[in-house]
Fold these 2 entries.
Entry 1:
Amino acid sequence: MKVITYGNPVLRKKAKSIKSIDKDIVNLTDEMFKIMHTNVPQGIGLAAPQVGISIALFVYELDDERGVLINPKILEKKGKEIGEEGCLSVPGIFGPVARAEEIVVTALNLKGKKITINAKGLKARVIQHEIDHLKGILFTDYIDDISKLEIEEGYELPDKLVERFKNQ
Ligand SMILES: [Zn+2]
């Protein structure tokens, strides 16, 4: 299992909601945490479509907590904040994205229990970024000008992304 990158059509599909949380789902999330840790650079969030599986699930890991959210839905959004984002599926590329500063999200956890999370700051940003993946949206979709993208040394913009800006 590996992370798929910009241009792979799976990243553009709407992820299917998950009907039953079985052993395969638990194993998948274990594997996703592993990938997130071993990937260079490391990520703080990873959605199932990014490993080629188009189902509504993502994992995240911040300094003090990790979580798995299944069939997540944003109930409330408050405020607006621009912050730099990157994505394991668009490696080495970063850009500014406006997100809600605070959100309320409902989802199932790995035990199938319905949970509600109040998140703000970086956690709110990660969750919004990952939920976008489940809708086939990538952070670069919010960038209106190619010059706003930062490209880390040793990386280049994916061809498909360059094309998108040309077609604007
Ligand atoms: Zn991403």
Entry 2:
Amino acid sequence: MKITVVGTGYVGLVSGVCMSEIGHNVTCLDINRNVINKLRKGKVPYYEPKLEKMILRNIKKNNLSFSNSYKNSTQEVNIFFICVGTPENNDGSSNLKYVYDVAKSLAKNISEDAIVFIKSTVPVGTNALIQKLINENKKNNINIMVASNPEFLKEGDAVNDFLNPDRVIVGTSSKDVMSVVKKIYEPLKIKNEKIVFMPIKAAELTKYAANSFLATKISFINELSILSDALNINIEHIKRGIGSDPRIGDKFLNAGLGFGGSCFPKDIASLINIYEQKNLESNLLRSVREVNKNQRINFMKKILSHFKNSKLTNKKLMIWGLSFKPETDDIRESISIKLIKDLAKKVKKLYVYDPIAIKNSQKELNRFNNIDFLKSQYSNISECDALIVCTEWEIFKNPDMAKLKKLKSKVVFDGRNCLNKEKILQNNIKYIGVSK
Ligand SMILES: NC(=O)c1ccc[n+]([C@@H]2O[C@H](COP(=O)([O-])OP(=O)(O)OC[C@H]3O[C@@H](n4cnc5c(N)ncnc54)[C@H](O)[C@@H]3O)[C@@H](O)[C@H]2O)c1
């Protein structure tokens, strides 16, 4: 099938490339010329495992191309996916400018009957507004149907998620759209019941419900970690104790610095805004957000209180992890970056290391002249008083103890509870985690 995917960010690129991998003929369209030029050479503009090889393979097979031109990318194509960003406005609502721009551009260029799937996360009612916008701007008497197909992939494992989805949610009432969806996803050989059709508005809300629920699990365990810390109970026991119940499950139950990223914070803000639009209260979601914010503040207090009798302005600290989670270079709403900004104002120097996200972070942190970006994980460790782990990258989980012992104050702050506490203590290094 010929498909055009609009927006080559984290979602659009993975979706487009994976659809080419399963045999469709895909054009990925973006207005960013730099990005398209890189992609044409097989270079991925951000870090996502497995993507680069797949791009090169499918360019070679003539299944995949990249374009800046709406005109060229709409010729003889009947299936479109909109995957552009929906960032947060100041009032928490979603900025739909990019989605509407794309819808208008598509409407002005599409010349045959077509289906436009909205993969971007959009507030309830947006698909209907896009349908109206397209109808007002389309050429001639063609039929362009809008359907919702929210995306649930996780950065860092996005290719796998796309090719082996837990479910595909499609909001439509059209039998024609349903049969096209089945054909698009047919090569994935997913069971029928995993393709879930529902009304458009329900599909729109499902995406917000999924992200808000996962964020709620994180804030739940984090709130519990405050109590278990005060009671001197290791929160890891509680995680194991409740996570083994299949009704609860152990995913998203890691106590730590809290959630960040380009989705959870903005999707919760947008959902709260949707409640407000309906004059309804969303107490739970507001609390989820509050707990998340406090988690970072509490951790900062632990660091400050550890050094209480010595001047922090003379201290040098080492930070491991900049990305909002492992296996990505995405630092949008990264808790690590927020913590670094708070700490940089208080300490003499911060040495920071991340296997992938340094380049993105440099732009974000360049106004601080006491932050040094390290090329390797342990360099300068003997100059530092403490290590703070902010992202649970695999390479951080089993550190070289001989090197850790070089820390001047011999203390490790584990913001993700991802280190082996016993091993660290055995090496006479103090361990401060999140109720661990
Ligand atoms: N990132 C995730 O993990 C994830 C997961 C699920 C859903 N989502 C949702 O998917 C959507 C996209 O997120 P993302 O992280 O991929 O965004 P992104 O910011 O990484 O990428 C957006 C891309 O859209 C392009 N673009 C903007 N305006 C355009 C236009 N008029 N025409 C063509 N291209 C245009 C930009 O140049 C950019 O490359 C958002 O709504 C997000 O909430 C994201």
